[in-house]
Amino acid sequence: MRCITLAKSFRVQNIDVTFICMKLPGNINNVIEQYNFSLLEIDALNPKDGSYKNIHEIEDAHNTINLIKDMEFDLLIVDQYELSHIWEKKLQNIIKHIMVIDDLADRKHACSFLLDQNYNSNFEKKYEGLLPKNCIKFIGPRYAILDESFQRFQKLNKKHNAIVKNILVFFGSYDTSGETLKVLEAFSKINIDKIDIHVVVGANNPNKKRVKNICYDKNYDYHCQVNNMAELIFNADLAIGASGASTWERCILGVPTITTIVADNQIDVAHELDNIKAICLLGEKDDLASKDYAQMIQKLILNSSQREQISLNARKIVSFGTDFITKEILKRLSEPFK
To answer: CATH 3.40.50.11190 region(s) of the chain?
Structure first.
């Protein structure tokens, strides 16, 4: 979704945007088309049995070049962890400027711009030896890619209630480990009778029917594939979720959050944010049960001073906004690169 957010910001500035995506089951290509962006698809399924073809980045580069060789683009934005300078150098033969979205810093890049929205106390050395000398770097959550609706709600500068009246649960689009179900079970172990519960799942959540049934049974508010996430987060006094891209959405609105690590690439960032008390890190998904969630939820419900401190620290992290990023990129593209 972060690429769609970027694309929407470029569109506001009268820039045409085209997406190039793999044609795979479970992707969000239909969402791209719903926003009326042009979409080019690379078939990644084996025609014999419908299985996924493990395409090497060189082959992927050739497929991409064949798809766009007769088109003209000023900038190519790459958001794919399996692609490196090998892929990027081949694409530079037809598109001069490439921007890479990354946060792993585990491979070299051949790019004009790099955007890494994750928090890192040692960000100046994170990509040392991995980027061209003239690469323009946007590093840190102040460059978080957020929908403009978050900027609007941020300006309202809401002060959260001393008493928790609204809890939001969201563990990303997939939540394959079933953290949402663990939290729903945790609610049954504590007193939340006077608290509004909002549970959000993605369209690809494998447990969404079960989650929906529990929510209806318990009179919780159930939401699937929403487009008003900023409003839901803004209204929450406490959030429970994954340490992914939604972290920055919660931070910019100052919502104290019980956070779970659901992927390896979230480990370092989650611990860094926990160290500065901008989140309340519960642990890694495989180590957690419903009782762990119940204990921490109960603790934060009762501790308004801790929630307030987390909120204040979280607000300090995210600042510029997506429109700033896209305007800065367009400005730099109009200038000669040194």
So the answer is: 2-146+320-333
Query: What top-level class would CATH report for the domain 149-315?
Result: alpha beta
Residue 246 CB contacts under 8 Å (≥ 6 apart), including other chains: 170, 172, 229
CB 279 within 8 Å of CB 243: yes
Q: What is the pLDDT of residue 173?
A: 87
CA dihedral 253, 254, 256, 260 (to 10 degrees): 60
The pairing of strands 136-139 and 18-23 is unpaired
Is domain 2-146+320-333 in CATH 3.40.50.2000, yes or no? no
CA 306 to chain centre: 25
What is the reported pTM? Answer: 0.86
Q: Rounded to whole angstroms, how far apart are CA atoms 126 and 103?
A: 9
Alpha carbons 94 and 216: distance in angstroms, whole number: 53
For residue 293, what pLDDT is reported? 98
Output the CA–CA distances (angstroms, integers) from residue 307 to 239, 251, 298, in the order listed: 11, 12, 12
Cα separation, 44 vs 54, in Å, equals 8
